[in-house]
Specification:
2 helices, 26% strand, 21% helix, alpha+beta
Length: 58
């Protein structure tokens, strides 16, 4: 399982490198997932959600 957490603090604006939908799509192609869906869940496009089904090992 992979979990990415982008925390917010006083220095986040200086060091923040937010992911774009394009970058998340590229990343998702490297994961063992099927039926991948990527959604934008906020008005400012700052909330990306990746959903997919894990592929079983053969």
């Amino acid at each position: 399982m992979l979990c990415l957490l982008d925390t917010f603090d006083r220095l986040s604006a200086k060091y923040d490198e937010p992911w774009t939908k394009k970058r998340l799509i590229k990343f998702s192609k490297k994961l063992p997932l099927s039926s991948v869906q990527i959604k934008i869940k906020t008005d400012n496009a700052n909330g990306l959600i990746l959903n997919g089904y894990a592929l079983k090992d053969s």
